[in-house]
Design brief:
alpha/beta
């Protein structure tokens, strides 16, 4: 991300941006290290590859999927950046979810779930409520 950083900051016109605090004191471009990018129809396919040893979750930086699926449950916890309570956690423009190893609590990989992203762009409040119902800690209890 290159200055000026205003184009990356969350606003009414840029609902998938990051909070201004991400750029506090930064004047130079921000570069991410090279990472593995996975494209799948469903996150379930990637979880299957983790389970059969074809891929390692620690090697994946970002997964872009159409739908979330449900095979991740039990292996990972999820933080939804589409839940308005978690907006401040988004570090990169457009990411919709962060996955964390369920046992260790360490970060695993980031995800862009296109189906939920489109729903969010059409009706942010409704999708935020959906995210709270399906991905919050309270929903798991």
């Amino acid at each position: 991300m290159e200055p000026p950083f205003e184009k990356y900051i969350r606003s009414g016109e840029n609902p998938l941006g990051v909070t201004r605090e991400v750029f506090a004191g930064i004047t130079e471009p921000i570069e991410s290290p090279v990472q593995v990018l996975e494209y799948k129809h469903s996150l379930d396919a990637l979880i299957e590859e983790f389970n059969n040893g074809t891929k390692n979750p620690n090697d994946v930086g970002l997964a872009v999927v159409w739908q979330m699926g449900d095979k991740w449950k039990g292996y990972f916890d999820v933080v939804s950046y589409l839940d308005d309570r978690n907006l401040h956690h988004r570090q990169f423009h457009g990411f919709t979810h962060a996955f964390v190893h369920a046992v260790s609590g360490t970060p695993a990989f980031q995800v862009i779930v296109l189906e939920e992203l489109i729903s969010y762009l059409q009706d942010p409040q409704k999708e935020s409520e959906h995210q709270k119902e399906t991905h919050s800690e309270e929903a798991a209890i």
